[in-house]
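Design request, tokens follow.
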């Protein structure tokens, strides 16, 4: 039995923090897990910037409401789900992801949650588990599933390397150069074909 595990931001939907950086005019917030491998460090840095600018959950959700999945993403996901079980595994947060999941046809998503004060300030975040992507893939394997995984960032490498087959999708030149053994694709049709062949 096999499950395909996919990253979300950069693979199926635009990077939420980049969209928010552009909408808010705060370029520092463009930094993502493609740039910073340490997710805790990255998130704490982001929360510090939000606090400094007096921005909270509502402002981010207002921007997310304007974001659509990447062109072709829903069709890719629909096709993939026609022949494979699929779980989206993301380091994003329930409070961010819900409207985007609606636009993708409500696929199964494992993600994290934000701690939000009554005034809407984001005061912290709760990770579902440590190294959530790798931990999830290993947990699936421990109950009898084989996994295929794909993502674009440093925090996807663990689940990609631990899976029966793993692929980079629209990743950075640096990550592709540092991990030449991982097949890398730019188009959904090519990723779909690679997943079919790996099954």
């Amino acid at each position: 039995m096999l499950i395909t595990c996919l990253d979300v931001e950069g693979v199926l939907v635009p990077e939420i923090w980049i969209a928010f950086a552009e909408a808010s005019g705060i370029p520092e917030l463009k930094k993502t897990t493609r740039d910073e491998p340490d997710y805790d460090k990255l998130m704490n840095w982001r929360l510090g910037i939000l606090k400094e600018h007096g921005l909270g959950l509502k402002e981010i959700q207002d921007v997310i409401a304007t974001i659509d999945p990447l062109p072709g993403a829903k069709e890719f996901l629909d096709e993939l789900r026609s022949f494979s079980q699929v779980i989206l595994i993301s380091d994003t947060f329930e409070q961010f992801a819900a409207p985007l999941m609606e636009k993708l046809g409500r696929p199964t998503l494992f993600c994290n949650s934000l701690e939000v004060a009554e005034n809407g300030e984001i005061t912290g975040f709760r990770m579902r588990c440590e190294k959530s992507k790798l931990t999830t893939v290993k947990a699936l394997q421990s109950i009898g599933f084989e996994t295929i995984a794909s993502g674009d960032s440093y925090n996807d490498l663990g689940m990609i390397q631990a899976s029966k087959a793993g692929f980079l999708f629209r990743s950075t030149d640096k990550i592709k150069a540092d991990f030449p053994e991982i097949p890398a694709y730019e188009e959904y049709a090519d990723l779909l074909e690679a997943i079919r062949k790996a099954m």
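Comment from the thread starter after seeing the answer: thanks! Strands lie at 2-6, 85-93, 109-116, 122-126, 146-151, 165-169, 184-185.
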